[in-house]
Design brief:
The structure holds two protein chains of two kinds. Chain A has 15 helices and 14 strands. Chain A is α+β, with helices and mostly antiparallel strands. In chain A, α1 crosses α11, α2 packs antiparallel against α13 and α11 packs antiparallel against α14. Chain B is of the alpha/beta class. Chain B has a single domain, classed as P-loop containing nucleotide triphosphate hydrolases (Rossmann fold, 3-Layer(aba) Sandwich), CATH 3.40.50. Chain B has seven helices and ten strands. Chain B has a six-stranded mixed sheet, with helices on both faces. In chain B, α5 packs parallel to α6. Chain B is globular and about 55 Å long. Classes of the chains: A alpha+beta, B alpha/beta. At the A-B interface, α1, α10 and α15 of A face α2 and α3 of B. The structure holds adenosine-5'-diphosphate (ADP) and magnesium ion. The site of adenosine-5'-diphosphate has 13 residues of chain B, from β2 and α1.
């Protein structure tokens, strides 16, 4: 009997083809748009964390506790005191990278300006910071290199090129004077904000310049899957108990970035909500029309002995099938586009790119294939359909054959 | 002969106070198995109201109704629906059929609800459709049938599951003379052959002429009960 009810439901759906198609399309179009928007948002966060966070601050960062409030060289740490080997062996950790992050007055004798000085390990950091793509002139650093890399912006400012020298003056560890003359080995192009005023040195040279042998300001820790961030954080913290060191996630180090993502995500949620309301009204309209058009017929069915619960089964099946078709097609249609943009993110130019750069995002547009985004949005549509079908449920549960047949 | 419908001092009042309408006033009838009865009277005399009561679709303000030996006052809504399905066949004035089902599917609907096997359904529906002259129209949707043909399918649906009696409210109201005569022939034939009990509400003289018992209603009261 259930089978016959389902056949009846299926035929009922197509009684008014135009309305069925309209209802389905409203679901398809909204779901397509919402999936596109949400998958793009989450891809952007993920992409930026991977590309910016992993190179500049790391998913996690180990520093001395005092460094959190006062980011000075005096609060640096001795590399040998951190159990790097143990941390590297934690499952999901892909790398532990020592860094010196400080600053110095850089001048040519004519022009001078304060710049960030970054001591990196060329063996791993060239790859991590994707420096190979960024070289405009000269070459990159080698291990223990004594040259420096500067940004294109700085090269323009000082009017220097590869082979020219720059004078560095600053404060070293515990009051020592840091001073040196470095020749420019390479000039780099940095799209995003902070790095455009940075000088890169080999870690060894930075330690020498700042008179801080064996010392670094922080360890960057990168992980394979951002979902494991909190679990790995806990494990590292365990390793650091009893020391003066502290491990912080990128969210703690750069709360502004996280907030930026959240504000963006919330605006996306709001847009989705509005679209879903429109879908909800569409489905509700369909339900109201459907009930009123077929009220007499429902009355006849009830009179000849069809129980209200069976009638409810038929009509709810109609609505479920209609919604499921919409959800299915919406997912199906969006997938190829999402897949394509996932594999081939587009590099943006012009104003859009500048706007993203200003927010500290890399100017790329791509889409994710996050299963939870597909699932949550599909479920949202089903939930809305379920809520709006409450009208039908109430009407049919209380259906009275005679009243329904009243003209 | 067994009594299939029995009402005792029925009163049905619609509305309250000044606006109250006494649609049925002290109506007592007995209808026996195999009767071919017409409820007759002018518009507003209470025919439909009485038919609804003995169809288990509405409740009286006063009086008792016994249908097929069952005191329906004791039934709950769900049980009443089931009672109608098992005991009463309905033919309404129009729009009896489900538009998306074929003539055959409409006709078998109640049998399906009753869980009767496909083999038995098929045999009975084909036999009845043939009897009502709709052979070859099994797969037509109601929209592809004339008004008279649709009413005949409705009769087949009502009859197929072998109810205790069939109630028909103005079944010929939307039909031309030829269709009316055909439908009456058909119901009369089924009354004879299957011994099926029919009760019509009508003010169509052609129907009245064919009835074997005519109950006259006026202002909610029985004014004459004529057995021919
Ligand atoms: N649901 C209702 N509400 C109010 N009055 C009704 C209702 N149904 C019927 N009536 C009234 O009851 C009387 C009998 O109506 P009805 O049984 O339909 O007559 P008939 O079928 O003989 O034309 C009429 O006066 C009609 O207006
Ligand atoms: Mg009437």
């Amino acid at each position: 009997m259930k089978k016959q009810f389902l056949i009846l439901a299926w035929r009922n759906i197509w009684r008014n083809k135009r309305r069925a198609l309209l209802t389905i399309s409203s679901i398809v179009v909204s779901l397509f748009f919402v999936l596109f928007m949400r998958q793009m948002q989450y891809w952007t966060y993920d992409f930026n964390i991977k590309n910016t966070v992993s190179g500049s601050i790391g998913y996690l960062q180990i520093t001395d506790t005092s460094y959190v409030d006062e980011k000075i060289l005096d609060n640096s740490i001795v590399t040998a005191e951190v159990p790097v080997g143990t941390i590297e062996s934690i499952k999901g950790v892909t790398g532990v990278h020592p860094r010196i992050q400080s600053g110095a007055l850089v001048s040519t004798g004519v022009k001078s300006k304060f710049a960030a000085v970054l001591g990196i390990q060329p063996s791993s950091d060239i790859e991590l910071l994707k420096l190979s793509h960024k070289v405009r002139k000269g070459t990159l650093l080698e291990e223990n290199d004594t040259g420096v890399l500067i940004s294109e912006k700085m090269a323009d400012y000082y009017k220097v090129s590869v082979g020219d020298s720059l004078i560095f003056m600053g404060q070293g560890y515990q009051g020592y004077t840091a001073a040196g003359i470095y020749s420019v080995k390479g000039i780099l192009y940095f799209p995003a904000g902070d790095m455009s005023n940075s000088v890169l040195m080999s870690l060894r040279e930075a330690q020498r310049f700042f008179v801080a042998p064996e010392r670094i300001t922080n360890y960057l820790i990168n992980i394979k899957n951002s979902k494991d961030l909190n679990a790995i954080h806990t494990q590292i913290e365990e390793q650091l108990t009893g020391t003066s060191f502290i491990a912080r996630t990128w969210e703690e180090v750069l709360p502004g970035l996280k907030q930026g993502f959240e504000i963006d995500a919330n605006s996306g949620l709001l847009i989705s909500g509005i679209l879903y309301m429109i879908v909800g009204f569409g489905i509700f309209g369909t339900i109201v029309m459907l009930y009123n058009e077929r009220r007499f017929e429902f009355g006849v069915l009830s009179a000849i002995g069809l129980q209200n619960k069976d009638l409810l089964f038929i009509t709810l099946s109609e609505l479920s099938i209609l919604t499921l078709i919409g959800v299915f097609i919406g997912n199906l249609l969006s997938f190829p586009l999402l897949y394509y943009l996932n594999r081939n993110p587009i590099k943006l130019g012009g104003e859009a790119a500048n706007a993203m750069l200003e927010q500290g995002f890399e100017p790329y547009m791509g889409t994710g294939l996050f299963v939870d985004v597909f699932a949550m949005n599909s479920l949202s549509v089903l939930l809305i359909a379920a809520l709006t079908s409450g009208y039908m449920i109430v009407k049919i549960v209380h259906l009275n054959a005679l009243e329904a047949m009243k003209q | 002969m067994k009594t299939v419908i029995e009402t005792n001092k029925l009163h049905k009042i619609f509305g309250k106070g000044e606006l109250a309408v006494h649609a049925l006033n002290d109506v007592s009838i007995q209808i026996k198995e195999g009767e071919f009865t017409a409820l007759v009277g002018p518009s507003g005399s209470g025919k439909t109201t009485l038919l609804n009561l003995i169809g288990g679709l509405d409740q009286a303000n006063e009086g008792t109704i016994t249908l097929n030996s069952c005191d329906i006052n004791t039934l709950k809504k769900k049980e009443m629906t089931e009672f109608r399905q098992k005991n009463i066949g309905f033919v309404f004035q129009a729009y009896n059929l489900i538009p998306v089902l074929s003539a055959y599917e409409n006709a078998e609907f109640i049998m399906l609800l009753q869980g009767i096997s496909e083999k038995i359904r098929k045999k009975r529906i084909y036999k009845l459709l043939k009897a009502v002259g709709l052979e070859g129209k099994e797969n037509n949707k109601p929209g592809e049938l004339s008004g008279g043909q649709q009413q005949r399918v409705a009769v087949v649906r009502a009859l197929a599951a072998k109810p205790a009696y069939i109630l028909a409210d103005e079944p010929t109201a939307n039909l031309d003379s030829k269709s009316t005569n055909d439908l009456l022939d058909l119901m009369y034939q089924l009354n004879q052959e299957e011994h099926m009990t029919f009760v019509f509400a009508t003010h169509d003289q052609r129907v009245i002429d064919r009835a074997k018992r005519v109950i006259y209603l006026e202002d909610g009261k029985i004014i004459k009960d004529e057995i021919r």
